[in-house]
Amino acid sequence: MLSDTIAAIATPLGQGGLAVIRLSGPGALAVADRSFRPAGKGSTPPSRATTHTLHFGHIHQGGQVVDQVLLAVMRAPRTYTREDVVEITCHGGVLAAKLVLDTVLENGARLAEPGEFTKRAFLNGRLDLAQAEAVADLIHAQTELSLAAANEQLAGKLSQRINRLRDEMVKTLAHVEAHIDFPEEDIAPDTKEQLLQRLEHGVHFMDELLRTAPEGQILRRGIRAAIIGRPNAGKSSLLNQLLGHDRAIVSPIPGTTRDTIAETANIRGLPIVFVDTAGLREAGDELELEGIRRSRQALAAAELILHVLDAAEPWTTTDARYWAEFAAKKRVVVRNKVDLPVRLALPRGLEAPVIDVCCLTGQGLEALKDAIKELVWAGAIGTEMLQVMINSRHQDALRRAREATVNTLDALRGDRTLEVVAMELRIAVNAVGEIVGQTTTEDLLDSIFSQFCLGK
Ligand SMILES: Nc1nc2c(ncn2[C@@H]2O[C@H](COP(=O)(O)OP(=O)(O)OP(=O)(O)O)[C@@H](O)[C@H]2O)c(=O)[nH]1
Ligand SMILES: [Mg+2]
User: Could you list the residue range(s) of the whole structural domain that residue 231 is in?
Assistant: First the structure.
């Protein structure tokens, strides 16, 4: 597979100043030679150029100039994929980029699959699997914190910890296997005690990593926060305030919002997807009822609820019913319109933070953001924390590793045969190895890299 040369447009499709077409593989320079004509006297073709140099010239096809470009030559192994890489920077029109791509494809390259450049970087040992995933996280990061966490993982902070854990387990496994080979020798009691301790230490370490999963999820995928309340409470006004721009239509007519609107905002570094919903009520026309049905769907998927109340209106049985209905979720009561004479008396024992805001002026919004952050992520977000934040794939592998390690401990304590001990421990070692890609399957690689964008 790695004997061919792949190509893709690495920049987003659309109009822009520049676009980049990327080539990687043993034939990258030959393809470049056939596609590119350097400008100026004494200029060299890409295949004779020094590594890490930039060349001005034209991409041509069938005697016709396709575009004026800058071409970067990067020879293996000091490249992203550890193969010969050529990057062609052309004009940013959709057509220009596509024609340059067509030209290199005609001259011997093959269209890359999503994530194939990074997959090659992994297969050639330039990145491990956790680092490769960090590349995708980096591209998708929506807040500075998400970006910082992705950078730490790309730098190998998680991988280092996983490799240390795996090394320890491999050592223990070697020890156990050595005793299988010499069955006449029993494991000395103090040696056994040492092995038990090492395994327990491993379980403890896995537990610590597993505890980072919820935060890892938040930084990667964000938290869905539904804005609910009676019609006209100011839900859309609140959405606009939180986003910092006028996204949703606001009007004094109850039932303005028909469709659910979802948009991500950066709240204290956390990506929060706010979902504005149609005001909950039983009446209304058919359109509004459909809106309310969608609201209910959005509510089911939400992890956090902002319950908006109009401070100028009394608490009604409808409010009470919705309050009871979503008791299982994390919630904030947002008392809006505090600029008006207050007629709202909240019932006692709501057991949620209550924040006063005015969506006309933005008053109280900072306090609301603090409350959201506190509910989603208790405590300070330390740099140490950002270094290791496992994703759901790591979580799954670690859970399996933990279970097998606990089984190993039980087997060793229960004086089961060393074959059984070794078998369980091998399962654990392999599961830990999956995280960094020491143990992989083609399916696993496909499922990871297919989530990448084209050209990465
Ligand atoms: N005085 C005052 N009016 C507000 C405030 N926030 C919103 N409003 C007004 O309340 C009305 C309803 O606001 P929306 O944001 O459309 O309310 P909504 O909850 O989205 O309403 P529906 O989409 O119909 O369910 C508009 O006229 C807003 O200008 C506030 O803090 N103070
Ligand atoms: Mg609305």
Answer: 221-376
